[in-house]
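During the reporting period, we have paired protein sequences with backbone structure tokens. One record among many follows, to show the layout:
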Amino acid sequence: MKRICFALFAVALAACTATQQPVKKAAEATYDGELNILMLSDAGRNGSYDQRLIGEWMGVYADVLGPEFVISCGDLFHYQGIQSTSDPLLWSNFESIYTHGELQCPWYGVLGNHEYRGNTQAMMDYTQVSRRWNMPDRYYTLSVPLDDDEPDSERVRFVFIDTAPLIDKYRRDSLQYPDVQLVDPEEEVRWIDSVLGASTEQWKIVVGHHPLYTYDKKDDAEQEEMRARLEEIFRRHAVDAYFCGHIHTFQHIRTGRDSIDYVVNTSASLQRAPQRGPLTQYASENTGFGLLSFDPGVMHYTLVNSRGELEYEIERRK
């Protein structure tokens, strides 16, 4: 395990509101892998709540880690998604928030339920406009080496899925979520099964918006339908972790029936109080973002809260 230390002295949070004071951060240590990724979810609040603050902390950690890319687990554009590739929300929720130079790396996103209230095709079309936004399709996959200079190095298979069409309540509400009808859920599930089945990478990571497991007041049917479609596939193909968002809390769950880590990546803006249950490994009421790193034989995830603190860690070895 490699760790690097950094000290932050009187870090001025530019463009914060008048109520937000410059912060000081004592020396901390975070995991620095061969492959480093930042991850956020449910962030789109036009800079309000903690979004701009968390964007600043993401820049601080990105400056240290030099991430290969950033993952958005959906709902980057509350409340009604975007309408076109020139929608002002693209500036107020994304381009003007995540401004640090190290955050100008590629971003890979999935669609959340709030994006489905808008023009989802515009989310994909923005790939042709932005130098960093990448969403080539509603669901897609990516194989990444741990070391670009070593073609035989371990690789990570990322599978980015489109979860709203897999849930009946969105399919029934064609007025509020018209684009959901553009996706055949059975065809998507077959695609997920085939991609995971063909994967020879050492690590298999699935990213979506809606959870398979969580403790929350939201409709339990969402999770039940997600599990009915995907859980057996994830187990059969030995998925290492499923990362998602949607419920605006941080939750780490293990079922005990397999080795999959189910992680609800905490909200990067407005947070809700978490619930806990018998499968809960950890839950947090704090907003923040995630750091996902890989070394040969090691996957390491860290929850960073809105105070810039390293709050919780998950490690997998193989």
In short: Residues 220-236 form the longest helix (17 residues). The chain has six helices and 16 strands. The helical segments are 51-65, 89-95, 120-125, 168-172, 185-198, 220-236. Residues 4-27 have pLDDT under 50 and may be disordered.
